[in-house]
């Protein structure tokens, strides 16, 4: 196998923007505000901050160290630690494959809604427009039913953009794209927040979000929600940060970079909460109802509640363009990072050149996405896949990976030494305690709590047959694919890559 020279970020700022772009995604905008509102309002910020410091940033640092130390994708890096651990890396790659197929679809919806915002084409009933006129969703889910051109064509555009960026590589593709995407995202969202704060009823919405209910701090589910939000919002647990860090120079500051990325992500989430609830406060005031009656999360918030607001407010079309353009940009930067995990793993495994991998592997991800989701039941398939791959894919893979690295292979001391050698902020005992005790306990409890809820009633009332085929099979299938791929032999020389070979960029940096 011919080993291709490893690419490298041109600047630390380029890496940070890419890492922030991966972390700041659709969930920051539509998930954090609702989670905070449902779990104590302003009081939720305390467990949220503690979760960031005891789980989010420590995990981020660990993934950065693994990526930079081995300069390989997750399967190859974990194989370097111990050959059986390679299966965890391929499990993460399979998870990224699944997520990429449906994540692109939501971006395609947002692309269409940028246009729909002009003239408020959803009319007086945004919910009926979304599920009926636009998505053509049936009352009960099926498989590969009617084709929906209104979703297919923008989805093609999304994949052309993503694969085009990836084809240009780390420096000329991902880094340059994020240098445009992330500043533009913050400008658009800051403008949206400023506009939202000038609306009548904005203060009502902010009071609903930030008024603390301190009694909720005694509720264990609030703390689980805080850790869950931090975990899912930082793009940790499914290979992205290991992959991105594998393109760092050997003397990069890891702990400082993790802190910058972690706090930047959380700052954007709080900014999103302000913008979303100021807007919902306006809708509640205009409708003469309480904020609790218009508050929501996910697809309902973005594609039903916000269109309703846009229809009510002056110059609503401009507000809609800002909001849905922000969704598109946040989604694209995250999707690029997710697909890069798959491409990097295949490159390391086969020695394939980047553009060949992008066209072959990235094209396969796009093909699966274009076949499954621009259909009438696509939204049901997306919903079930997303729920199960998040709860029993990302979180479970991270828990297993953490136990193996920390307790089975006992790698934390060597990883800590690797980070301390080049980082401005040295890691102490707190880092080992967080990763060795706090994070595994919280992730384990999340698993137990989630499974308990899962077996009490079917998710969203879907039939057992549909959940088995579109939910459980997806999560279990990702695990099986990871195990099977780990047993496939590497090409001659593929497992003996000289990790100490320095590139000219490394020598220049040193």
Automatic annotation (TrEMBL):
Its main location: membrane. The keyword Magnesium does not apply. Keywords: Membrane, Transmembrane, Transmembrane helix, Transport. Signal peptide: none annotated. It is found in: Membrane. It is a multi-pass membrane protein. It comes from the Bacteria. InterPro entries: Na/ntran_symport (IPR000175), SNS_sf (IPR037272). This is Transporter. The lineage of its organism: Bacteria, Bacillati, Actinomycetota, Actinomycetes, Kitasatosporales.
């Amino acid at each position: 196998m011919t080993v291709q020279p490893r690419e490298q970020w041109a600047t630390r700022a380029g890496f940070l923007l890419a890492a922030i772009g991966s972390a700041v995604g659709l969930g920051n905008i539509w998930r954090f505000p609702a989670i905070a509102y449902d779990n104590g309002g302003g009081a939720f910020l305390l467990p949220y901050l503690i979760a960031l410091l005891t789980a989010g940033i420590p995990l981020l640092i660990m993934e950065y160290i693994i990526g930079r130390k081995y300069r390989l994708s997750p399967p190859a890096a974990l194989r370097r630690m111990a050959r059986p651990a390679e299966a965890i890396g391929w499990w993460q790659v399979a998870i990224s494959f699944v997520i990429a197929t449906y994540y692109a679809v939501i971006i395609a919806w947002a692309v269409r809604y940028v246009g729909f915002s002009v003239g408020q084409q959803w009319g007086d009933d945004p919910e009926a427009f979304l599920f009926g006129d636009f998505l053509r969703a049936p009352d009960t889910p099926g498989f590969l039913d009617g084709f929906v051109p209104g979703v297919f064509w923008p989805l093609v555009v999304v994949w052309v953009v993503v694969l085009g960026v990836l084809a240009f590589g780390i420096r000329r593709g991902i880094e340059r794209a994020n240098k445009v995407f992330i500043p533009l995202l913050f400008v658009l969202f800051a403008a949206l927040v400023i506009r939202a704060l000038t609306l009548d009823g904005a203060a009502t919405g902010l009071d609903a979000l930030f008024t603390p209910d301190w009694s909720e701090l005694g509720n264990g589910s609030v703390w689980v929600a805080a850790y869950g939000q931090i975990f899912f919002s930082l793009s940790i647990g499914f290979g992205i940060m290991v992959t991105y860090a594998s393109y760092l120079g050997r003397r990069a500051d890891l702990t400082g970079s993790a802190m910058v990325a972690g706090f930047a992500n959380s700052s954007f989430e709080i900014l999103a909460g302000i913008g979303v609830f100021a807007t919902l406060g306006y809708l509640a005031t205009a409708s003469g109802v309480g904020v609790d009656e218009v508050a929501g999360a996910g697809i309902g918030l973005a594609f039903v509640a916000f269109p309703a607001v846009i229809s009510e407010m002056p110059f609503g079309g401009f507000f809609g363009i800002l909001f849905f353009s922000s969704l598109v940009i946040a989604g694209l930067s995250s999707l690029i990072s997710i697909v890069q995990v798959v491409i990097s793993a295949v490159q390391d495994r086969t020695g394939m050149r980047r553009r060949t991998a992008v066209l072959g592997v990235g094209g396969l991800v796009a093909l699966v996405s274009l076949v499954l989701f621009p259909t009438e039941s696509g939204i049901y398939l997306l919903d079930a896949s997303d729920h199960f791959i998040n709860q029993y894919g990302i979180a479970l893979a991270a828990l297993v990976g953490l136990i193996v690295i920390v307790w089975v292979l006992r790698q934390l001391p060597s990883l800590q030494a690797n980070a301390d050698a080049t980082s401005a902020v040295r890691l102490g005992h707190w880092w080992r305690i967080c990763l060795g005790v706090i994070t595994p306990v919280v992730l384990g409890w999340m698993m137990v709590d989630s499974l308990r809820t899962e077996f009490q009633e079917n998710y969203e009332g879907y039939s057992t047959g549909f959940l088995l085929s579109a939910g459980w099979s997806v999560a279990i299938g990702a695990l099986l694919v990871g195990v099977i791929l780990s047993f496939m032999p590497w090409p001659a020389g593929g497992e003996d890559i000289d990790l100490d070979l320095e590139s000219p960029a490394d020598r220049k940096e040193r």
